[in-house]
């Protein structure tokens, strides 16, 4: 339907605009699809085939995964799929496809009491594993790392591995789930009385866990533990 002097039908223009803006269509040309554009002038929705539209719904939550750490705060994750039914020519299901709980909160014997140092220690764990497994060359990198940028929501959950002299630093991988972070994602709002929240890395993003150690709290329901006003923690 392109070319100089093309006359677009009202339906085709509106359908294309809807597809671009809302990622779904509302009509297809049937008998007119092979006709010259000049013959399509004035074609409306009459006699056109509507595209099927089906809104998606979430399936059931799956079981929680094992805790990601044996000590020092790990994470258990439950996931669900937007497949009951799957959306057809419609937006994805609203909300999260996963939820998480902090677990094994007792510090490890070697954990630092300083949150920044603890986060850097977790980064070092990642870099050490990369060097030991050959992901990073031991000729180029030390078994040491740090948080890429603690002041950023995303980069605060990314690892920077330390190079040996004469080599460049490498931004490499994500912080382990449950690692401390300091610039939380602002997408999730918490009640004013919920003061004892924790900032933790989850899937590469600094997220806020509520006072019952859950994220996002909307998927868990109201917790009696969160009714008390306590000092914020990391």
TrEMBL record:
One of its GO terms (molecular function) is metalloendopeptidase activity. Pfam families: TSP_1 (PF00090). One of its GO terms (cellular component) is extracellular region. Disulfide bonds join 67-103, 71-108, 82-93. Keywords: Disulfide bond, Hydrolase, Secreted. It is found in: Secreted. Its EC number is 3.4.24.-. SMART domains: TSP1 (SM00209). GO terms for biological process: extracellular matrix organization; proteolysis. PROSITE patterns: TSP1. PANTHER family: ADAM METALLOPEPTIDASE WITH THROMBOSPONDIN TYPE 1 MOTIF B, ISOFORM B, ADAMTS A DISINTEGRIN AND METALLOPROTEASE WITH THROMBOSPONDIN MOTIFS PROTEASE. This is ADAMTS12.
